[in-house]
């Protein structure tokens, strides 16, 4: 069981300490063997997935985890660069590439895909995209990668058109057609569930939607479309600095994340919102309820 033990800085980082027993003889002697692996995660579903591994697989495998729950999207990479984490698990490649291009000089390695959190268009006031009124306000994530995804949902629903020359980081300024005169309001992703009562609809990241129980408490107007590069662009995965990629503990965690028991846990826990991705990068489809 994870226990709250400290808060780091202004980001309200919850340290979740876990003791998983001594490493197995097979793990002893390797690089990093016998040491606790500190992994920064978003609380849901990432933290829950690591907690499942900790409680069911880690001790047998000889892996001791310290799960560091972080509520925002900037701190996990910062702590990785500063050496406070050995790895993190909260982001997709598109976000990592954008963050690395604008952050401190560091060599990140995206090690393996684990799952996809589907962005959804949610509303408390209407039951379908067609019911959105003239001049509706729709809140969207403000980080570039997920803002682009959100605009893709609105375009797929026929609410707007986006300039195709804007590429993968389009913003509300790239909207070329807006027949309902919709106002697109970018907000920090973590604020979107709280804002949904004040707008006509909101595009919310899967992890924050789950925490706020939006898939069951609000109307799901649409899920994001899945393109050919869906996994490559938007699967969340395990990330470490290049110097730590071959760390035995990191490689062992990468293997455990694709254990059949973990895949089944993901499928059963978040049907339709979180899609498990196997070691070959294939989505394990689960029909949304």
Question: What key attributes describe this structure?
Answer:
single chain, about 290 residues, alpha+beta, 9-stranded mixed sheet, 5-stranded mixed sheet, 16 strands, disordered N terminus, membrane, Lipoprotein, lipoprotein
Describe this structure in words.
The radius of gyration is 19 Å and the shape is globular. The strands form three sheets. It has a nine-stranded mixed β-sheet, sandwiched between helices. A five-stranded mixed β-sheet has the order 11-8-12-7-13. A two-stranded antiparallel sheet has the order 9-10. The longest helix is centred in the first third of the chain and has 19 residues, at 43-61. It starts with a strand and ends in a 5-residue tail after the last strand. The chain has 289 residues and is of the alpha+beta class. 30% of the residues lie in helices and 27% in strands.
The secondary structure category is alpha+beta
Radius of gyration: 19 Å
Largest sheet: 9 strands, mixed
Oligomer: single chain
Q: Low-confidence segments, ≥5 residues, pLDDT <50? A: 1-30
Order of helices and strands: EEEHEHEHEEEHEEEHEHHEHEHHEE
Q: Order of strands in the sheet with the most strands?
A: 1-2-4-3-5-14-6-15-16
Report the principal-axis shape.
globular
Distance between the termini: 30 Å
Tell me the fraction of residues in β-strands, as a range.
25-35%
Please count the helical segments: 10
Count of β-strands: 16
Helix content: 25-40%
The averaged pLDDT comes out at: 87
């Amino acid at each position: 069981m994870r226990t709250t033990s400290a808060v780091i800085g202004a980001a309200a980082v919850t340290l979740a300490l876990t003791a998983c027993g001594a490493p197995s003889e097979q793990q002893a002697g390797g690089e990093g063997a016998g040491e606790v692996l500190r992994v920064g995660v978003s609380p849901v579903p990432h933290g829950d997935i690591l907690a499942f591994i900790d409680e069911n697989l880690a001790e047998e495998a000889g892996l001791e985890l310290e799960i560091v729950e972080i509520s925002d999207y900037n701190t996990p990479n910062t702590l990785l660069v500063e050496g406070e984490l050995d790895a993190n698990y909260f982001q997709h490649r598109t976000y990592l590439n954008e963050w690395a291009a604008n952050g401190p000089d560091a060599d990140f390695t995206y090690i393996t895909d684990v799952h996809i959190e589907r962005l959804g268009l949610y509303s408390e006031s209407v039951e379908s995209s067609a019911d959105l009124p003239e001049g509706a306000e729709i809140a969207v994530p403000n980080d570039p990668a997920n803002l682009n995804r959100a605009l893709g949902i609105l375009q797929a629903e026929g609410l707007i058109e986006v300039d195709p020359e804007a590429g993968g980081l389009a913003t509300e300024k790239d909207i070329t057609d807006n027949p309902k005169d919709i106002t697109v309001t970018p907000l920090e992703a973590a604020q979107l569930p709280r804002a949904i009562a004040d707008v006509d609809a909101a595009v919310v990241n899967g992890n924050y939607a789950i925490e706020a129980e939006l898939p069951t408490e609000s109307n799901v107007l649409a899920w994001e479309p899945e393109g050919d590069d869906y996994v490559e662009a938007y699967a969340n995965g395990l990330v470490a600095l290049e110097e730590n990629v071959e760390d035995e503990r990191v490689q062992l965690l990468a293997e455990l994340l694709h254990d059949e028991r973990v895949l089944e846990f993901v499928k059963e826990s978040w049907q339709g919102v979180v899609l498990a991705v196997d070691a070959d990068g294939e989505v394990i489809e689960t029909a949304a309820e």
